[in-house]
Amino acid sequence: MKLWLLTLTVLAAVPKAFSQDAGGALQAVAEMPPCARECLVTSIAKSPSTMNLTAVGCDRPTRDRSPAYIILSDVFGTISGVFVLQRLAYKLWAKLDLGGDDWMTVATVISGIPSTVISSYGVSNHGLGRDIWTLTPSEITRFGLFFWILEILYFVEVSMLKLSLLLFYIRIFPGRTVRRLLWGTFIGSAAFGIAFVIVAVFQCTPVKYYWQKWDGEHQGTCLDINSIAWSNAAISIAIDIWVLAIPLWQLKSLKLDWRRKIGVGMMFCVGAFVTIVSILRLRSLIKFGTDSLNPTWDFYDVSVWSVVEINVGLIWHNGTILWKELET
């Protein structure tokens, strides 16, 4: 079995062998300089075609987690959309003015629509949750393109979700000091979002090298995607904790009886769950990087947690605001 696999691998890798038998192909490899043989063996070992050959020869099962991801994306996207519609419908029914936080939430959902569509019909249909060696070259390239778009949309949505929450706090907390603090946080969060969107767009030079680099036939350079993801997650969690602490600190200044203060405090504490989700997402970043030999499989977990993080944030944020409006 091993000899058969080696012979087929060499026949697929050495042009000279196309016109010779297996013995001639092996002889051609033997005549190569040591450095050339090392390069050839390394390239063959890492190539998707060789991995596919090995998987078939060893009767490895075909893995596919894409159906679960499609269901997750569609269900969470629908639920978060319903919460936003309920919030807007109530405000229109009660003839309440739409504030900046409402419009920012609408913008977040609008950016989330293409994100959900690409998750279900872009990356999922082109390899996410499957082994890369089971895909065609065009599928791998399209997966890279769609994943690059999802990265950008993720940074946009995370930033806009924070901005929407900050605008809500600015609207309900009248204190001059806290409003200055909130506006400062708003500016910082906006800068955070813009910076990472720009980095995501131009992380590779040329840009298209992001989804073309896998075949080794294109020239270009890329930033360390793992470092980008970790730094974004760390800053995002720090901002979440800071934003969560502000309303809890302001509870003492709200003119509410102790029962309603406890209720409001618990309402804001639910936001801690969103931060916990963001922290749990950090674990999925361990396998997220440019050196992955099986990105369509390795990037599955971070994709799942990103969907959960964004949509849970929308659900909590809109549920919180709707609860407050009904209590008013």
Question: Could you explain how this protein is built, in words?
Answer:
By secondary structure, the chain is mainly α. It has two domains: 2-57, no CATH class; 66-327, Rhopdopsin 7-helix transmembrane proteins (Up-down Bundle), CATH 1.20.1070. Helix content is 75%, strand content 1%. It has helices at residues 2-13, 22-30, 34-46, 48-57, 66-93, 100-123, 137-172, 176-201, 209-212, 225-250, 258-269, 271-284, 295-298, 300-327, and strands spanning 204-205, 221-222. A two-stranded antiparallel sheet has the order 1-2. The longest helix is centred in the middle third of the chain and has 36 residues, at 137-172. The termini are far apart. Residues 1-22 and 40-46 have low confidence and may be disordered.
Taking all Cα atoms into account, the compactness measure Rg is 25 Å
The mean pLDDT is 78
Tell me the domain tally.
Answer: 2
Helix/strand-derived class?
mainly alpha
Report strand %. Answer: under 5%
Spell out the helices and strands N to C: HHHHHHHHEHEHHHHH
Spatial order of the strands forming the largest sheet: 1-2
Low-confidence stretches: 1-22, 40-46
Distance between the termini: 74 Å
Q: Which word captures the global form?
A: elongated
What is the helix tally? 14
Biggest sheet character:
2 strands, antiparallel
Helix content: over 70%
Q: Please name the CATH topology of the largest domain.
A: Rhopdopsin 7-helix transmembrane proteins
Architecture of the largest domain, according to CATH?
Up-down Bundle
CATH class of the largest domain: Mainly Alpha
Write down how many β-strands occur, each being a DSSP E stretch of 2 or more residues.
2
GO cellular component, one term: membrane
InterPro entries: Rhodopsin_dom_fungi, SAT4-like
Domain Rhodopsin: 87-315
Family: Belongs to the SAT4 family.
